[in-house]
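A further point concerns the way the authors explain their paired sequence and structure data. Each protein is reduced to its one-letter sequence and a matching series of backbone shape codes. An entry of this sort, consisting of the sequence and the corresponding backbone structure tokens, reads as follows:
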Amino acid sequence: MFLKLIGVLGGTFDPVHLGHIHLAKTILQQTYLHHIKLVPCYQSPHRNQTHSSAKHRMEMLKLAIANTTNLELDLFELKSPRPSYTIESIKHFHSRLPEGYALCFIMGADAFAQFTLWNQWQEILKLCHIIVATRPGVDTSCKTLPKDFPASIVANATKLNKQSSGLIWFTDIKPLDISATTIRHFIQTGKDASAFLPPKVWSYIKEHKLY
């Protein structure tokens, strides 16, 4: 039996930019994911308060993925006005999975290197697979897992749809050289940030005078 896969990609998306969309679309192309949920957090437990409101970040995401197949906005974390923990979201999505589906949580290599410090990280691995986006030429020491690590690395994404959880797949993605920090700095200093953003998101930022 082959399972259908649903991806989960979280973040502050403050603002959502072309790098986020490139990452999601690239992983869709590389895997058999049915679709990817983009899950903006209310507030990350590892970061300070966001720079724009939940409403603005939600509206920008809607604009960024409008008319884009296989990318879906999910507001589960935004509806809870407190720091967002991945385990709570994964439990929520897992409890609502249709029969014959499995979850894949998407993260960067930097985040995965700190994964064992996350709240209830072992439980996350019991409920989903992990897709780790790495960059060509970047340190991949996180691929060397401890012997007692409760998950297995697979070399091919096709392995992910053969069981419901507990697998890790590393994929090299040539990222776009874009960050939300750079975008906010451009805007704060009066520079044009349009090259980093979907056109409708850039228009929204200017209209609402964000950042």
The chain has one domain: 4-177. The mean pLDDT is 92. The longest helix spans residues 18-30. The helical segments are 18-30, 54-65, 86-95, 109-113, 121-127, 180-188, 199-208.
